[in-house]
Write a structure and sequence with these properties.
The protein is α/β, with parallel strands linked by helices.
Length: 638
């Protein structure tokens, strides 16, 4: 048998896929999977999810006329095969690198990405928006949303589905079930039934039945409707989705292109109500190391294709996440009321470690940050000590609950905010940029930021000890500074900072993990003849007013440094100085924070240099505050 001619090399856009037959689609899927494995072995990134949707991606672009037909991927973890097929193969090895392709779908990157994503459960709402806009304009294009079973645990997905049936007639939702969490095992019979109930023959019979039922008395009409839906539901498991107003098709094998293609074609032709196509896939499909891994290699560093071994650098120090987890375990060993909550990120937040030690005190609520926050509030209201452990960027999803269910009631929920600041390759959607401002705005909130590992351990102990109001502490992604961690972490004095270095010309006040760069900046300033005080603020709220006012009196300039957006720690300091009249005495001040843009993905050190939050950037801020004409004079006074 002659070797197959490579097909992937002939695909520039999805239009090149539409004329392929079944055998060619299967060949293309195999080549696409091999290409993705090779790419991610070189770039790292999200892996298992993309492997699981190779056939689905091929089928969707074969059936639908993208980009005229709208295809929205929820989260975007699984979008690498989609990018390869939509004109970005020549750039796919720049994935997640500075100036390269995003690891998620991105509107500015391609017309085949009609809606950007990186947080879960947004796809159906966005798709419904496209549907209504289409219907209003009188167009006839299809709209498809692909959402995973994990994202379906988020309330937003159900809010959208509840609204869809009364808002549009043509919408297809692909439920990508890769954990067997909804459906029983699938096989030939279920694929056959799915094809049957999505086909035109069954649709015609169904419409005939409905027209006949219309002449029956209303109780019999309702009985006939329920009989048809429940009978189909017994075969397909779709009664729940039918009750939300969707026509349910499935479950079907998401790796069987011979089943997928005709069912998607049938779904595309259903125009009178939204359709949910339930597709069962295997995360990590087609790559043995991913299939056998517990997490299906959800996210990986660069790896060896043959062995699957990842080329992760040996950490010089424990990660901040590990430091937090170990500190929380120590506190929980002393206090049986301490419990921990995560929203579908047990390993990412370190709560898998806590869960191994205290399985009955660990709660993973799924992708449901709103629920996580109010669940924690309920626990706190009844005397427990909950640590609600959520990435900063994901806590944004539960902010209303933080305000109303926690802060207004003064409940002692402890918020551990991982991934604070910039996060490198995951880019702006995952950066923890805004929590200082939005948490610090809340009356009664205690807000801390860890400068190093030892400080983080002490902040865990501090939060555990605060039992009369809410508290939050933030810490960055990645490994720590190598600072020794005390075996017994003593709680901090609430609202008090610490001075690490005394000077006279300029005061550098750091909030969080830019402290090491602030100390380097002080050395660089000293080389210029400028003496600098360096302070670790520890608390943004309550702010150490006495210390801030002392620094304002004793220095010509004051510079604040934070890994957060404008309106955060620097704004709190300015407010305090203004209230106490310190600005009236001619104090020169600069507030260094993240720039007022959504920074593109890159290596973290490059992102911070771009933001002006490395040592050189802090020096520039200090010199700008002192003024070019005054620098030499300030140096003589130092």
């Amino acid at each position: 048998m002659p070797p197959l001619t490579p097909l992937l090399d002939t695909v520039s856009t999805p239009a090149d896929i539409r004329g392929l037959d079944s055998a060619q689609l299967r060949q293309l899927a195999g080549e696409l999977r091999a290409e993705m494995i090779d790419v991610v072995s070189q770039t790292g990134g999200h892996f298992g999810a993309g492997l699981g949707v190779v056939e689905l991606t091929v089928a969707l672009h074969h059936v639908y006329e993208t980009p005229d037909d709208i295809l929205i991927w929820d989260v975007g973890h699984q979008a690498y095969p989609h990018k390869i097929l939509t004109g970005r193969r020549d750039r796919i090895r720049t994935l997640r690198q500075g100036g390269g392709l995003s690891g998620f779908t991105k509107r500015s990157e391609s017309e085949y990405d009609p809606f950007g994503a990186a947080h879960a459960a947004t796809s159906i709402s966005a798709a419904l928006g496209f549907c209504v806009a289409r219907d209003r304009a009188g167009r006839a294009n299809s709209v498809v949303a692909v959402i995973g079973d994990g994202s379906m645990s988020a309330g937003m997905a159900y809010e959208a589905m509840n609204n869809a049936a009364e808002s549009t007639g043509q919408l297809t939702v692909i439920l990508n079930d890769n954990d067997m969490s909804i459906a029983p095992p699938v096989g030939g019979m279920s694929a056959y039934m799915a094809r049957l109930v999505s086909g035109g023959g069954y649709q015609s019979l169904r419409h005939l039945g409905k027209s006949v039922a219309k002449v029956l008395p209303r109780p019999l009409q309702e009985a006939a409707r329920k009989a048809e839906e429940y009978a189909r539901g017994m075969v397909t498991g779709g009664t729940f989705f039918e009750e939300l107003g969707f026509y349910y098709v499935g479950p079907i094998d998401g790796h069987d292109l011979d089943a997928l293609v005709p069912i998607l074609k049938n779904a595309r032709e259903i125009k009178d109500k939204p359709v949910l196509v339930h597709v069962v896939t295997q995360k990590g499909k087609g790559y043995a190391p991913a299939e056998s891994a517990a997490d299906k290699l959800h996210a990986v560093a660069k790896f060896d294709v043959v062995t699957g071994k990842q080329a992760k650098a040996q950490a010089a120090a424990p990660t901040y996440t590990r430091v937090f987890a170990d500190a929380l375990v120590r506190e929980a060993e002393k206090d049986p009321k301490i419990v921990a909550i995560t929203a579908a990120m047990p390993s990412g937040t370190g709560l898998d470690i806590f869960g191994q030690r205290f399985p009955d005190r660990t709660f993973d609520v799924g992708i449901a940050e709103q629920h996580a926050v109010t669940f924690a509030a309920g626990l706190a209201a009844d005397g427990m000590k909950p640590f609600c452990t959520i990435y900063s960027t994901f806590l944004q999803r539960g902010y209303d609950q933080v305000v109303h269910d926690v802060a207004i009631q003064g409940l002692p929920v402890r918020f551990a905010m991982d991934r604070a600041g910039l996060v490198g390759a995951d880019g702006s959607t995952h950066a923890g940029s805004f929590d200082i401002g939005f948490m610090g705005a809340l009356p009664g909130m205690v807000l801390m930021a860890a400068a190093d590992e030892a400080e983080l351990a002490r902040m865990v102990a501090t939060a555990a000890a605060i039992d009369d109001r809410p508290s939050a502490f933030r810490y960055p992604r990645g490994e720590g500074m190598g600072v020794p961690i005390p075996e017994i972490a003593e709680p901090l004095e609430i609202g008090k900072g610490r001075i690490l270095r005394e000077g006279s010309a300029v005061a550098i006040v750091s909030f969080g993990a830019r402290l090491a760069e602030s100390l380097k900046a002080a050395d660089l300033l000293a080389a210029r003849g400028l003496s600098a005080t360096v302070v670790d603020a520890r608390f943004a709220k309550p702010l150490d007013i006495d210390l801030i006012l002392r620094l304002a009196r004793e220095h010509e300039a004051l510079v604040t440094v934070e890994e957060g957006a404008m309106g955060g720690f620097g704004a709190f300091v300015l407010q305090a100085l203004a209230v106490h009249g310190a600005l009236d005495r001619g104090l020169k001040i600069r507030t260094l924070c993240l720039p007022d843009v959504f920074q593109e993905h890159d290596k973290p050190e490059r992102q911070y240099a771009e933001a002006g939050l490395d040592a050189e950037g802090i020096v520039r801020g200090a010199l700008a505050a002192l003024g070019a004409d005054n620098v030499s004079a300030a140096g003589r006074r130092a």
